[in-house]
Amino acid sequence: MTARLSLYQKAENELYKMDSSVKTKFYDFCHQFRLDPNHPSLDLRPLKGDGRISRAKIDRSYRALLARAGVGADGIQQWLIVAVRHRKDVYEELTVAINRITGEIEFVDLGVVGQSVLQRAGLQLTPAPDEHTAPAEPTPAPNVARQPAVPAEPLLAGCTPEDLRRLGIAEALIDLALTVTTDEELDQLIAGAPRLTAEVLTGLGSGMSADEVEREITQPASTELEPGFENDMAAALTRTAVTTVDDDIRNVLAEGDFRAWKVYLHPTQRKIVERNYSGPARVSGGPGTGKTIVALHRVARLAAALPPGHGKPILLTTYTKNLTADLRSRLTSLMDPTLLGRIDIKHIDQLAQSVLNENTSPGSQRSLITDDRALDVLREVLFEHDEQRWDAEFLFDEWEQIILGQSLATRQDYFKARRAGMGRALNRPERAAIWKLLDQFTLRLNGLGRETWAQAAERAARYEMERARKIQIRAERKEDIGGGDLVHLDDNSSAMRYVRHRYQHIVVDEAQDLSPAHWKMLRAMVAPGAGDLFIASDTHQRIYDRQVTLSTVGINIRGRSAKLTLSYRTTQEILDQAAKVVRGATYDDLDDGTDTLEGYHSLLRGPVPEYVACADWTDEITQLAEALEQWRADITQPAEDGTVRDPSGTMAVCVADGEMAGRVAADLEMKHGITTATLTKDGPQGGGEVHIGTMHRFKGLEYQKLAVVGASDGILPRATLIEKYATTDPNRYERELKKSRNQLFVATTRARDALRISWHGKPSPFLPS
Ligand SMILES: Nc1ncnc2c1ncn2[C@@H]1O[C@H](COP(=O)(O)OP(=O)(O)OP(=O)(O)O)[C@@H](O)[C@H]1O
Questions:
Q1: Does residue 185 have its Cβ closer than 6 Å to ligand 1?
Q2: Residue 690 neighbours by CB distance under 10 Å
Q3: Top-level class of domain 3-243
Q4: Per-domain residue ranges for the chain?
Q5: CA of residue 718 to ligand 1 center, whole Å
Q6: For the whole model, what pTM was predicted?
Q7: 288 Cα to the center of ligand 1, angstroms
């Protein structure tokens, strides 16, 4: 090998999308280049504009653009492939530079900047000569619309070149950015700009001030740089996100997008992953901003730092069962299998069950009962007591939210309990009566050998808290006697002697839906201290009616919270519409503060979501089937090399409830011949192409194209279920509305590039007007 090759992130992303025939030629090119960069077939030549950048030949049509990046410690020359372009798109003014904030190598392609902007800035691009082209002629000034007599006000009129420089915009783009006058021009500039420039411009374009951008975007990305850094390409290469080109590059490119998140964390994401936290920490952010990715990398980092040993000192948990399988498979692709064995991956109810199994003698376990069934039992109890003051729903809510929610063990505790957000006030005699009724209810469940999930979680929390209390007493006594042996401790059974906290680190995803009992259990499972709990959450996506203030369950995240704002999943067009669904509602931050979607944005662009009003159900399904057929045709369009993508699992239909999911599946299958798979707790079942499920099931998932069906008033929100609260319990009514609104928000943000929402009758009031 005479040259070492690396691949710039943007170039890698571009290559993912290219035809496999170009990719194959690219592998051959890399092989030849590493053997001998000066081989005549490569025709390596510097561009005239920037001596640091050269072009080399991949095949008749494609050129690699490369930057020389010094010589490695072993004396081998280093090159960075910054782009792969059709020869017609190679021109002399291409440049590379070292960013003054991040110290990374940046490639600037003015070719993707809009013609109107180039012309206003007086720039003209010169095609680079190529053996297949006629001698280079400057590109004639592009024929663009005449400038208006009174020039339009630049979009970033409030910024000076110095501001943009301070924020880290690539030098070659500063003047251009200041001449941009329309959103379209700005979007075009952003699409082609290096990473930090794109983020800064997006921030400024969305109305953030230069100071806000500096605080939120520039500072998190900044790194300390030595004087003279701008000329040291070899050092800059070490700071740049690249993939080393070796014989594995073929696999890298074949894995496509899937690989991107494994290799390149955004600097903001990386900082959150790598920080040493002195206690519980939390990452929040809108849908698709990479919270799960950050949580996975955090697990990998914690595992890598473990001393050698056995057992599973790290817990990775999430709310839903079907997401656990997804977390496991993503983690498998991220880490060494031996380290993977040190991680316990369980969803939260499974965790509670394992605690209960451990603490229950065989034969005395209680089986689980759904909330609906439990409500029936409560109704029976009320009927037998001829109780009419409160209905079963109200009492069940009181039980789940207040009694179980706050782990109230005695009547006295209940008398004193705060009932914030519960609406209707209850005086002492009323509380006494409610306590008695609920006592009867739990006794009845007990007698049946049944318990609800919430009860199981609360019981598991108690066992764990008791265990943590014993560990603490033991530690305190040990300290009192200067570390000696505790032979005389009351409970010195061998079981007690070796009792430890279950985990050293706990990482929680989808944390917004956990109940106070879940949190108490988790808190008790890990010793308070550095790196104990890492929490990923977005309260806009809370779809179960649970509210918690972490500080009240012994989890203090103050000063250890971070926020992600860049969506990697959804296009800006989808994101704009989704944000309108939750606009106006207030969201907590799992603590005493509030959370907002401020700054939430995407660099991806796509079609605007489609809103389709239909005449009736049959019409809605017929139009849906047509849209799915069209999507399928788009997805399966053969690539240039003839390969055809498998559309299975790329499209989905999301509905409000299970019954409707069944109807949509049956109609699509029987009337339109479209095969479907139903999303269940255990993932998609049925093997068909289009996934169908309720909004709850879509949590954490993503699809290339997604349709929401039945978005009608009366269904979203479900009037028959919640209307009664409008007068009897306005607080509950508001909570139900918000839950329903959040479900639609979750659903709409699962779409990567196409979203279609349909209804018949009156549209849902949550749809953006
Ligand atoms: N640094 C990155 N580079 C490339 N892709 C990324 C990066 N970070 C996240 N992604 C991709 O963005 C998508 C969303 O990521 P992820 O599921 O972690 O987001 P999230 O914030 O947990 O979303 P949600 O809250 O909606 O569940 C995934 O496809 C992921 O692979």
A1: no
A2: 28
A3: alpha beta
A4: 3-243, 269-353+464-564, 370-447, 602-760
A5: 31
A6: 0.74
A7: 5
